[in-house]
Specification:
This protein is of the alpha+beta class. It has 16 helices and 38 strands. About 25% of the residues lie in helices and about 30% in strands.
Length: about 650
């Protein structure tokens, strides 16, 4: 058995791996960048090694540094987690060549499934059904456009080396194909170093069904049943559950058997996921479920499988990597109840889900820890960095039925209190509570169709002010205080006319329960700039903006009302579509900013003329930097 393990990752997955390793008596080594010097995963390991600057390309993606850290600390094995180098066959081989144990599949298995076009050809040979599309080597715009016409719109452009929703574009009309292809290739090149794509027929009522598989070095392969990951936004999973609602026993048997065949076709070892797309227009049927791809690693959503099977997949990974056989036979595995996972992101749904960065002053979840599961890599006082994915936690609930699991997860979210950063807690609550989800009427387009219906109503300033006025006296009597430095202002509080700087802020340590207008809230109360201030959270996890009492609420937000185009976060300008003096129409794309592994298009707020263009392609910008100004004009713009 491995006795010392280096985790080549960060955040919640690093912490989760460490927990199992600790339970097994395995010592752990963390690696960290400049941004993660004080991170939870860095401090949770038995040892920690600094591997470079904050950008992942200079730290977590540099395999040589990670292998050197393992050698330096005497670690016998490297666990890659998910993301970063987890599906990099060259890195896996380098680990093995260095005389270390790679906790994952053989490099050749990763290569076999790493490129989606080659993987599909292999699956066809193994008798696994695949989605109709184009897998050819001719990557010219002309050929791809011709193939898209032949497949029939809508089509999906997908990076052959992609994953995690990156490098994917749905195209509804031939007129949009070339622009979508260019954007997809650019994102794929930036994310994976490979801009080749394949085309797939877009399935009208798609459900994302995946099967957890596990293999060992003794020739055994088992499945641990399926998960449904259909609730997605821009191809990124939002809520996952197991088992899949509406999956009958016969269909389950066929799809899981196909997944095992797929794994055996590449001589698979370790944890992996076979992803399928299902045409659910007539429910889940085995003849309408098609192979999409294989993820040759542990998945973000693996906890729901663990909850329904009682298996610790990380323990299995460590045992199999040590040469042991899978500890159970297929017939010994069964489904127990239902589990749902919601991904908590530091992002603002009201602002197009833009990531929110900065300090987490409050990160609290109430309730019995034995009744739900929280996977996170942050804690109070942590910094959410612009350098990495904005997911800060996974909220998981297991129960005897799907309905009870939903209800339990809603309570879990309602008891959460995260401030001052914006999060998607209210959005998650609305997704779980909406009628289609409760009724298991699922497909990958559900969130897009519901749109603003899932953006729950914010707490009014009047509610905050009235509740605060009544609570001020009781808060001041017995609340403990602590002084903190606030670099960026609290939610919604901006000093546009003054330079940014630190200011003394007193924040209450513990949230309080608040009852107002027959509704329950949590509240923290403190002092900001010598004035009483508070944040109040409702039952859907929505946090109110900073409010002052007793005079009333005070909020502020970035606005394009004056035509200023402001960088919503630190990032890199990867495309500039306009020039100084150019006339533009409302909604026209001005430029594209890349930050936190995502592209963000900045558009004109109204018809006008571009002036003061400061952004240039390839340039780095800071949050709130004015990139250009659109001056309103009554004259019809021309191209």
């Amino acid at each position: 058995m491995i006795t010392k393990l280096l985790i080549a990752n960060r955040g919640e997955i690093a912490c989760r791996i460490m927990r199992t390793a600790r339970d097994m008596g395995v010592a752990t080594v963390a690696v960290y960048s400049d941004a993660d010097a004080k991170a939870l995963h860095t401090r949770s390991a038995d040892e920690a090694v600094h591997i470079g600057p904050s950008p992942a390309a200079e730290s977590y993606l540099v395999g040589e540094k990670i292998i050197a850290a393992a050698k330096e600390t005497g670690a016998e094995a490297i666990h890659p987690g998910y993301g970063f180098l987890s599906e990099n066959a060259d890195f896996a081989q380098a680990v093995i060549d260095a005389g270390l144990i790679w906790v994952g599949p053989k490099p050749e298995s990763i290569r076999a499934m790493g490129l989606k076009d080659a993987a599909k050809e292999r699956m066809i040979a193994a008798g696994v059904p695949v989605t109709p599309g184009y897998l050819g080597a001719d990557q010219s715009v002309e050929r791809l456009s011709k193939e898209a016409d032949a497949i029939g719109y809508p089509v999906l452009i997908k990076a052959v080396a992609g994953g995690g929703g990156k490098g994917m574009r749905k195209v509804d009309d031939a007129a949009d194909f070339a622009a979508s292809l260019e954007s997809c290739r650019r994102e794929a090149k930036a994310s994976f170093g490979n801009d080749e794509v394949l085309l797939e027929k877009w399935i009208t009522s798609p459900r994302h069904i995946e099967v957890q598989v596990f293999g060992d070095s003794h020739g055994n392969v088992v499945h641990l049943f399926e998960r449904d990951c259909s609730l997605q936004r821009r191809h990124q999973k939002v809520i996952e559950e197991a088992p899949a609602p509406g999956m009958d026993a016969a269909t389950r048997e066929e799809i899981c058997a196909a997944a095992v065949r797929a794994a055996k076709a590449v001589d698979y070892e370790g944890a992996g996921t076979i992803e399928f797309i299902a045409d659910a227009s007539e429910g889940l049927r085995a003849d309408r479920i098609f192979f999409m791809e294989m993820n040759t690693r542990l998945q973000v959503e693996h906890p729901v499988t663990e909850e329904i099977t009682g298996v610790d997949l990380v323990e299995w990974q460590l045992r199999v990597a040590s040469g042991e056989a899978i500890p159970v036979k297929q017939e010994e595995l069964s489904i127990n109840g239902h589990a749902i996972e919601a991904r908590l992101y530091a992002e603002d749904p009201a602002k197009g889900f833009l990531p929110s960065t900065g300090r987490l002053d409050t990160f609290r979840f109430q309730g019995d820890v034995f009744e739900q599961r929280l996977e996170t890599g942050v804690e109070e006082g942590a910094e959410v960095s612009p350098f990495y994915d904005p997911m800060i936690a996974k909220l998981i609930k297991h129960d005897d039925s799907r309905e009870n699991a939903i209800q339990g997860l809603l309570r879990f979210i309602g008891e959460g209190f995260v401030a001052p950063l914006s999060t998607n807690m209210g959005f998650l609550y609305e997704c779980l509570d909406c009628e289609p989800f409760r009724g298991a009427q699922l497909d990958t387009g559900l969130i897009e169709r519901l749109g603003d219906e899932l953006l729950s109503t914010p707490i009014s300033d009047q509610t905050v002010s009235e509740a605060l006025s009544r609570l001020t006296e009781s808060f001041q009597k017995d609340l403990e205080w602590e002084q903190r430095e606030l670099i960026d202002q609290m939610p919604g509080f901006r000093l546009n006319s003054e330079p940014r700087g630190s200011s003394s802020v007193y924040v209450g340590k513990e949230p309080r329960n608040v009852r107002h207008d027959a509704k329950d809230y949590f509240a923290t109360f403190g002092v900001l700039h010598r004035e009483p201030a508070a944040a109040i959270v409702n039952e859907r996890g929505n946090i109110a903006r900073v409010a002052f009492a007793p005079e009333g609420g005070h909020t502020g937000a970035a606005s394009a009302a004056d035509g200023a185009i402001i960088a919503p976060m630190p990032g890199k300008v990867i495309a500039v579509d306009v020039t100084d003096g150019q006339a533009v129409k409302a909604g026209e794309r001005l430029m594209v900013l890349e930050a936190m592994k995502m592209e963000h298009a900045l558009t004109a707020p109204f018809d006008g003329t571009v002036t003061g263009l400061e952004a240039s392609e390839g340039g780095q910008v800071q949050v709130d930097a004015v990139l250009c100004v659109v001056e309103p004009s009554a004259i019809e713009p021309t191209k």
